[in-house]
Each structure stands twice: as C-alpha cells, then as structure tokens.
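[worker-b] picked up task from shared queue
[worker-b] task type: protein-ligand structure
[worker-b] ligand name resolved to coenzyme A; SMILES cross-checked against name lookup, match
[worker-b] sequence length check passed
[worker-b] input payload:
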Amino acid sequence: MLETSRLRLRPYRPADAPDLAREANDLRVWRTLRDRFPHPYRESDAERWIATHAQVTPPTALAIARRADDRLIGGIGVERQADVVRFTGEVGYWLGFAHWGRGLAREAVAEFVAYCFARFDFERLEAWVFEPHRASRRVLEASGFRLEGTARRSVVKQGELMDSCLYGLVRSDLRATELPSPP
Ligand SMILES: CC(C)(COP(=O)(O)OP(=O)(O)OC[C@H]1O[C@@H](n2cnc3c(N)ncnc32)[C@H](O)[C@@H]1OP(=O)(O)O)[C@@H](O)C(=O)NCCC(=O)NCCS
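[worker-b] inference finished, payload out:
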C-alpha cells in the first residue's frame, strides 16, 4: 500500500465495487480514455475488474482511495508491454469527476511511478494522451514525463479523429530528479 498526503493507493477489494461503478460510470471520465473502459460502467464491470486485479502480486493496478476514509475515488495501473518492449510499462489513471482539479492525480501518478520503478524491472514508463487533454498532459509533465512525440491522427474517440501524445519517463530520469541538488 502506498500513501501520499491525501491518498492511499492500495489493492482493489470486493467491497470497492459500488464505489468503483459509481465513480467510473461517467461520460466525463470515459471520453478521454480508451473505449475498452466500459460505458456505461456497471457494478458487474467493477466486480470483473476487481476479480481480475485484486490478487495480482505485486499489484499492477491499484485503487486510488481517500486517505481520510479509504473510499475508492479512482484507479491507476501499469501494463507491461511485450516482446522487445517488455521493459516498458504503459501507465493509465483516472479519477471520479467530483475529485478533479485538486492536484490529486498529480499526487497519485508521482507516487505510482516511484512504486513502478522500485517494485518492477521497468526501464521505461510511458503514457499516451489525447492531444487536446491538457489536464492529463500537465499531470504527466509534473511527474517528470517528457513529451516524446505526437502520433498524428492516431485516435478516434466518439467519431472524432485526433492526434495523441506519447510521454515517456526512464529509470535514470527519476534518479536524476531524486538526487539532492549540489551545494
Ligand atoms: C486526467 C485527470 C486524472 C486529472 O486529474 P486532476 O486531479 O483533476 O488533475 P490535477 O488537479 O492534478 O490537475 C492537473 C493539471 O491540469 C491543469 N488543468 C486542469 N484542467 C485543465 C484544462 N481544462 N486545461 C488546461 N489545464 C487544465 C490543472 O491546472 C493542473 O495543472 P498544474 O499542475 O499546472 O496546476 C482527470 O481529469 C481524469 O480522471 N480524467 C478522466 C480520465 C483520464 O483522462 N485519464 C487520463 C488518461 S491519459
């Protein structure tokens, strides 16, 4: 389990299903995610997600919960890529709409990135963001990710074609930011 000043990143548990379904069942959350994120998001989707991820050790997907009451407000995860890119993990995250705009995603992503490099042998983490999605791009930049490129007209969401941005963070970037500044 990981803790930040306001959040707890912890494994999913069966009792999270109603909170997960309620927070995730929102077009405002879905519209900047891949279509594989269900919409509408039903309690059965939540139960399936939890059953798949709750027992993985070390966990690759964690619930984002409020530290105050341990209630789930979002999710964050990393997916190992395959073959020659197997030392790359793709990071994804979301928060329920009621929790946006308070710097919580930034807090969660920074903590999760440190966890990924500490607990797994990833050499690189990456994230793909729809080009117009300023908030998520800011979250990644604030967590040390660099914009590495733009895949032109690579995404279609709700019938709209758009560019997507590739952000990357390599293990040595993190080490560099953690080093104390020279006297
Ligand atoms: C992306 C998401 C996680 C951001 O969460 P959040 O907690 O609101 O983010 P933060 O409060 O940390 O804000 C991030 C930054 O974006 C900025 N921002 C927010 N909305 C913005 C907008 N419409 N335009 C420009 N900047 C914006 C904030 O000012 C902040 O910038 P700062 O760090 O320079 O102050 C949240 O919007 C979400 O869950 N969206 C749906 C799912 C999703 O898109 N996930 C990411 C897929 S790549």
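[worker-b] attaching auto-annotations
[worker-b] The chain has a mean pLDDT of 95.
[worker-b] releasing lock
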